[in-house]
Structure formats: C-alpha cells, structure tokens
Design a protein that fits this description.
This protein has about 300 residues and is mostly helical. About 75% of the residues lie in helices and about 0% in strands.
Length: about 300
C-alpha cells in the first residue's frame, strides 16, 4: 500500500522523513493547550447547572449529534477489523469515561480544582516511566530534568492558587484513578492506535462515552439540568472546543510525535487553567503563580526539544 493511500498521509510521510512537518501540526500544541486549559474553568461552570455524569452524557450526545450527519456526508473509511474497532473503543473508554468521568465526580465530591490539577499533571511522569517498556521510547536525562522542573512549576502554580487545604479522601482516590485512566489511554493509543479519519475516531470514542455515561447518569442522577443561556454557552464550548477540536489534536500529536513529549504538554495545563480562571471564575492568579508558569514552560521546552 502506498503512503498516499493511508489515512493522514502527511503524518506517514513525516515519520518516513519524506516531507517537512506540516504547519497545522506545528501549531497544534498551542491550539490544544488553549482549548484544553480554558475548558477547565468552563467545565466548572457547567457543574453549577448539572451533575457530573449528566453533564458528560449531554456533552457526548451533542458531539454525536454533530458527527453523525458529517459522517453520512463525508463517508470516512471505517475500521476494517474487529481489533481496529476495539482499539479505538478502548482509548475512548479510558479517556472519555474513566478520565473525564472520575475527574467530574471528584469535583462534585469536594476536591478542589488545585487538588485535581496537581494529581493529573503527574501524567507525564507516569508516561515517561512506562514508555520504554510499552512503546519502546527512551527518555533522556535531560528530559527527566525537564519533567521534574515542569512538575515543580505546576505545583507552584497550584500552591499559589489554592494553598494547603483538606481534600476529600474519596475524591482524591477518584482523581488518582482518573490519572491512571488518561495515562493508559495515551500509551494504548501510541502503541496500538492507527491513523483513522478524525471523524471515524471521534464517532467511535464518543459513542463509547455516551454508552456508559447516559445510563449511569439516568440511574444515579436523574439527569436534572438547570437550563439557561450560560449553560448553553458552556455546553457548546465543551462539545466543539474540548470534545471535537482538542481531542482530535491530541490524538494527532500522539500519533505524530513521541508520547513522553506530548504528555509533557499537560504540565502547562494547571498554569494556563489558573490564567483562564481569572476572567471565567474571577480567581486572580497570585504573583507566585507567574513564577510557577515560567518554570512549567521551561520544563516543557526541555522535554519537547528534539534530540539531534
């Protein structure tokens, strides 16, 4: 089969050294970070109007309502084997159900935004530890130093925002499980993922998300929603910005680059979330937070720098 016959042929040619890195892929980290980080505060607003599983169920259902007509028009290629279907579904379950579901429930149980963020940003450490065994990537000493510096910066930002406070033990346990969920999803996608059309991947993954969250929300929460203009705006952003655009960019970056470097982007999420929380939630970031943001950015730069 020729490279041009494969999904995302530009990624295939890039890996083979046949062309330069496409402009959209070079800009993907910045776009992803903005969309993902802003969604942190926006999701928190959404939880003021609906229970966590209800919010996720609505989010995934709306994504499917948008993607199904697109799929009928574009007719993107579907997986040809049961294993290919299963691989996409597993990643969808780990990220859409385990990661997002447990994080949202943890928020509702009383864990602070700082508590969730500082635990979840440990993901690059877990990925770097597991990458040599599962996907054959070697993490250099310089990259380890960058990972440590990024963690220190993220912790500084969270400390500056939240300080030291008592967290709900049950919620913290859920957050740790969520951390393992997105780490496993990242590694699984890198090892077994195939470059399917983004509409195909999203359709399957959000179908899995809806299949699990809809019955769970109906059984445990009754799916009660306080509908108003603000909630409609929140839901629209979570559907288009977080679910469709950000997730498509994340999967594309995982397939095109080293998994440990992609995961290092999450070090900037707590810092940027704090920055976006200022206008969204009225939570001003203290001066110490700016120092933490600089440390996190330096750590990401060290991890992301290409080896000669």
């Amino acid at each position: 089969m020729h490279a041009n016959d494969l999904p995302f042929p530009e990624l295939t040619r890039q890996k083979c050294g046949m062309t330069k890195r496409p402009l959209w892929l070079a800009a993907a980290p910045v776009i992803f970070l903005v969309l993902w980080s802003a969604g942190f505060g926006i999701a928190k607003l959404g939880l003021q109007h609906a229970e966590p599983l209800t919010l996720l169920a609505l989010r995934y259902t709306c994504v499917l309502a948008l993607l199904i007509p697109v799929a009928l028009i574009l007719r993107p290629p579907m997986p040809k084997t049961l294993r290919a279907w299963a691989d996409i579904a597993v990643v969808g379950f780990l990220i859409q159900v385990v990661y997002f579901g447990l994080c949202y429930v943890a928020f509702k149980s009383g864990v602070s935004a700082g508590g969730v963020a500082i635990i979840v940003c440990l993901q690059p450490i877990l990925v770097a530890l597991a990458a040599p065994r599962f996907v054959g990537e070697v993490v250099s000493r310089k990259a380890w130093a960058g990972l440590a510096l990024g963690l220190a910066g993220a912790a500084t930002v969270i400390f500056a925002r939240s300080g030291i406070q008592t967290e709900n033990p049950f919620g913290l346990a859920l957050t740790v499980l969520a951390l393992f969920g997105i780490t496993a999803g990242t590694l699984y996608e890198k090892k077994f993922g195939v470059s399917h059309h983004p509409v195909t991947s999203n359709l399957i993954q959000y179908g899995v998300g809806a299949a699990f969250t809809l019955p769970a929300a109906w059984a445990s929460e009754g799916m009660v929603v306080a509908w108003d203009k603000q909630f409609l705006i929140v839901l629209a952003y979570l559907v288009i910005g977080n679910s469709i655009l950000a997730m498509s960019l994340l999967l594309a970056m995982i397939r095109a680059g080293e998994v440990s470097r992609v995961s290092a982007l999450f070090y900037l999420v707590p810092a940027l979330s704090a920055l976006f929380a200022w206008p969204i939630l009225g939570e001003a970031m203290p001066p110490l937070g700016w120092l933490g943001m600089a440390l996190a950015g330096l750590g990401v730069a060290m991890v992301s720098r290409k080896r000669a």
